[in-house]
Amino acid sequence: MAPGVSGYDLRCPSHKCKIGGVGGVTMRVAVVGGGVVGLAVAWRLAAAGDQVTVYDPAPGSGATGVAAGMLAPVGESRFGEEPMHRLLLAGADRWPAFAAALTEATGHDLGYRDEGTLLVALTDDDLRTVARLADFHRRAGLTVEPLRAADLREREPLLAPRVRGGAFVAQDRQVDPRRLAVALRIAAEKAGAAFVGDPVTRLSDVDGADATVVAAGCGSAVLVPGLPVRPVKGQVLRLRATGDAPPLRHVLRGHAANRSVYVVPRRDGEIVVGATEEERGTDVQVTAGGVLDLLRPAVDLVPGLAEYALVETAAGSRPGTPDNAPIVGRLRAGVLVATGHYRDGVLLAPITADAVAAMVRGEAPPDEFRPFGPDRFPGVST
Amino acid sequence: MAPGVSGYDLRCPSHKCKIGGVGGVTMRVAVVGGGVVGLAVAWRLAAAGDQVTVYDPAPGSGATGVAAGMLAPVGESRFGEEPMHRLLLAGADRWPAFAAALTEATGHDLGYRDEGTLLVALTDDDLRTVARLADFHRRAGLTVEPLRAADLREREPLLAPRVRGGAFVAQDRQVDPRRLAVALRIAAEKAGAAFVGDPVTRLSDVDGADATVVAAGCGSAVLVPGLPVRPVKGQVLRLRATGDAPPLRHVLRGHAANRSVYVVPRRDGEIVVGATEEERGTDVQVTAGGVLDLLRPAVDLVPGLAEYALVETAAGSRPGTPDNAPIVGRLRAGVLVATGHYRDGVLLAPITADAVAAMVRGEAPPDEFRPFGPDRFPGVST
């Protein structure tokens, strides 16, 4: 990477002199799990000169494969959790340089877009929800522009006439997680990382590493007894314009009769509609109710979506934790965890990679991770 | 087939002595189109001793593959069309013997069930629709048992508590069209019919037949210039119970806030939810709006369906005609048509096969077909 082009330095920010390359310390690192977090860690370490092996029978096929890729650091589910906000904001800050560096390293289009998102309210009740959310964005230091219904529809003519109002969040961004996973794997391989398709059922299956990073999402609980990671099912739809349907311009974070839904248009014409949050069941089965819960508010907010082709229905399991914050830290000598990212795996992948890169060498991760080590949960086997 | 077992005689009912077998007239018949109508015709003729060749690159893959297979002769879309009623009732009468004969000929389970269906109304408005429909059944000579909400829910405990009422139609039946198509093909082949996978783009592609039967559904208009057959798109869903979800017992013909939907449980646990009727577009693309229009009333009527897996979404084109009645008759010497069955292809397949079997020999079809020849439309190329 040409210095200064992207501003994203793949070496550990605080210890550049110590890691990789000529005169640096080269580590053998096993990364168990090839989702977006594991892949970002692998690229980060391999680019710094470490010998990295990623273990995953199907990289990118877990939560990554069904994620929408909204890079929105402030969500309504996070009201009042200050440490988590700081982490999400810091994670979001990493993205522009990370995306630029990855694009440059691979030549791949990540579907990265930074036009901001629209918060949209269908009813008066929803308008109150959006107002609270907008206020929350402001307190987090983000710029939010309130929009009346007419202004909203001027920006996004496909919105339903009965939409009551909303707001514009300029700093929100998006990336296509499937493209991201492909690019990360290519970048990691280019930097020398190896990929092993054998499943890892015990950490002892991994031989000869100086450090093992458990980044196996929901599967992490099997590898680390006591790790409180549970699957939270999410269903997601992919639509595609048929004929000469006009394109949707903005990412929408919609509220329709107290149901929330996001509608994420990709540049290639695909629209992702997500996502349910279901605590029950460990299956990844698409259900009639899940699809209905997504289509109803999406079509209420954007009636023209009814004409779009429904090209994919999918379900996946997000790795949830008791506080729905990630678990990133040292478990014992030679073993780190980077999991439990719940809905924020894509947003937090770059900063998690930085944290793991530091910790592999026994250094402290970025401050924002301090509250999120595995030691906050009793009973985790170390 | 053992005489008397099914009561369904595969020879032409009115001219048994003349057709097939020892001393009979053996015809070479080309059947263009291997949907449920073409396959029934092929079996009928082959079993009578004719040399039958079916032309279809993918038998059973058109409207047949997405049909629900309700055998309900009286539907709300048919109010006031007396000749069509007579045909549908006569078609339904053929089914018990036809199903028994086909099952016996092949040993295949057709998914044939004769428990009757429930008409179900969600709102007061819907209740008026159901009352009109029940009255219409009675005038057609069918037995309809009105049911109050409590009675309905006793018969079908999965119905929503807010269902207002309905009725039971004892004579309605169902068959699984996919199983039916497989069985018909096997039966036709056992009886000596040949299948050719080459597409037929002109009738002159078919050589050496004494008679050609155009049973190509929506594709018939290409083969017979001027034949007024248009595609009417239908979308349909397939659900399947997950875990220990209780099974739905009855076929439901539901009315929910002025939307109609049918919910057809198969014995193997599959539930078919259908069907949209869309005049616009010739595509067979599943759309967000189509799926929503089916899931919303289905889940409103049977809330437990929300937990069912959505295992398939599909769309197909029914062959509609200006009066939405079939076009069955002689086009010119050696060429017959049997198409335009719209929503009634499965119900009318057996009686259509009888009609074609008669007409192949220049005999009159069953009386009920008299109003439905191609000569009722000016401009059909004969």
TrEMBL record, chains A, B:
Catalytic activity field: glycine + O2 + H2O = glyoxylate + H2O2 + NH4(+)
Occurrences of domain FAD dependent oxidoreductase (ranges): 28-359
Top-rank taxon, per record: Bacteria
Biological processes, Gene Ontology terms: thiamine biosynthetic process; thiamine diphosphate biosynthetic process
SUPFAM superfamilies: FAD-linked reductases, C-terminal domain, FAD/NAD(P)-binding domain
E.C. numbers: 1.4.3.19
Molecular-function GO terms, alphabetical: flavin adenine dinucleotide binding; glycine oxidase activity
Name of the protein: glycine oxidase
Species of provenance: Virgisporangium aliadipatigenens
